[in-house]
Design goal:
This protein is an alpha/beta fold and 354 residues long. The chain contains twelve helices and 17 strands. The strands form four sheets. Strands 3, 4, 5, 8, 9, 16 and 17 form a seven-stranded mixed β-sheet that branches. A six-stranded parallel β-sheet has the order 12-11-10-13-14-15, with helices on both faces. A two-stranded antiparallel sheet has the order 1-2. Bound molecules: zinc ion.
Length: 354
């Protein structure tokens, strides 16, 4: 109450790079919405790789990367209610339940005009380049808000924007996955990996999964994967070829990077390697001949556009998809949430509520 009176809010504030213990749950100035912006009362947010990097710094040389100006508040996923709107905002009103599309883009360049917001020449994202949703309030462009139907829970909505929009982009747009086809999902227990299993199964594809813990492999199979492999047990492409009678899979979802050689060898002729990250290393060695001689291709898909976002959110709104959620913490336990994310103990998204 006192914080609200003083235009303050509680937030998970990062003052410097370090372990989870550098995050401080403390009072911070509440932001004000500018022209075209809305102030959102955050009800739920969720952790992504970006949140871990905002705190720890990237694990090695990363392109593109700009060191943040501390203190920062991370958090790209956000579901909540509109608390106030800035000048010139039409289409959303205070009290409305919303979910945020976190991409920030100019709206003017050729890529934006073509509807490819994430290819914008001036691309940013809420929670990395602006203060994010690990707080009681966040400011974002009003045009980025999608109304949230009354029957949809904030927790489920907040689990989806970054991970599920990215997974949709990888499978449906970049991967051009068809119902009769097959896909290998690496990092199967993570946010994007678990999303990819659910979306690929829903698309009618046969799913193979790779995950480093037996718990994650078991849950991947419960979630719809036909079989799962431990990538540390040997070259996983040999396992994939055995599973597919020597053919290989049509799409590999690879958020890991260091795995490219094995991912490429897992592909059928004409197969697509789709890439949204390089969490295990961004300088893989691989043989270029193994790409072009088999008509294979490599596609970058760091995040999806507005259409991808609305397509995937509508699956939730229509009750056709429920995101995999590992754990829900109150924001005051943000340190424990980061520790859980780094442990790789769970399966699916870690959500924080206010
Ligand atoms: Zn643009």
């Amino acid at each position: 109450m006192e914080a609200a009176l003083l235009n303050m809010m509680y937030a998970a504030v990062i003052h410097r790079h370090g372990g989870p213990e550098v995050i401080s749950y403390e009072e911070f100035a509440r932001p004000e919405p500018g022209p075209g912006e809305a102030l959102i009362r955050v009800r739920a947010t969720s952790l992504n790789r970006l949140d871990l990097w905002a705190r720890s710094g990237p694990p090695g040389p990363v392109f593109p990367w700009k060191e943040p100006d501390f203190p920062i508040i991370s958090g790209s996923d956000c579901a909540g209610e509109v608390a106030a709107v800035g000048p010139g905002v039409a289409g959303v009103r205070p009290g409305q339940r919303v979910v945020l599309y976190p991409s920030l883009y100019c709206g003017q360049c050729a890529y934006c005009q073509a509807g490819e917001q994430t290819q914008c020449l001036d691309y940013h994202i809420v929670g990395e380049h602006t203060h994010g949703a690990m707080a009681e309030y966040v400011v974002a462009p009003a045009a980025n808000l999608l109304p949230l139907p009354d029957h949809v829970h904030f927790v489920e909505a907040a689990a989806m924007p970054v991970a599920y929009t990215t997974a949709w982009r990888m499978l449906v747009v970049a991967g051009n996955l068809r119902p009769s086809q097959s896909v290998l999902v690496l990092g199967a227990g993570g946010g994007v990996g678990s999303a990819a299993i659910l979306l690929a199964r829903r698309a009618g594809a046969t799913v193979y999964a790779a995950a480093s813990t037996s718990l994650r492999r078991d849950v991947a199979i419960e979630t719809g994967a036909k079989a799962a492999v431990d990538p540390a047990a040997g070259p996983f492409s040999e396992w994939v070829l055995t599973q597919t009678s020597g053919r290989g899979v049509d799409v590999v979802v690879d958020p890991l990077g260091a795995t490219w050689q094995e991912s490429i060898r897992s592909l059928a002729r004409g197969g697509r390697l789709v890439v949204c990250g390089a969490t295990l290393g961004n300088r893989p060695e691989f043989d270029i001949r193994e790409v072009y001689q088999r008509h294979r291709s490599i596609h970058g898909a760091p995040m999806g556009n507005w259409t991808d976002f609305t397509n995937v959110m509508n699956l939730l709104f229509r009750g056709e998809l429920s995101p995999a959620i590992d754990h829900v913490y109150p924001l005051s336990q943000v340190v424990a949430a980061h520790r859980r994310a780094e442990s790789r103990d769970g399966f699916g998204k870690i959500v924080l509520t206010m």
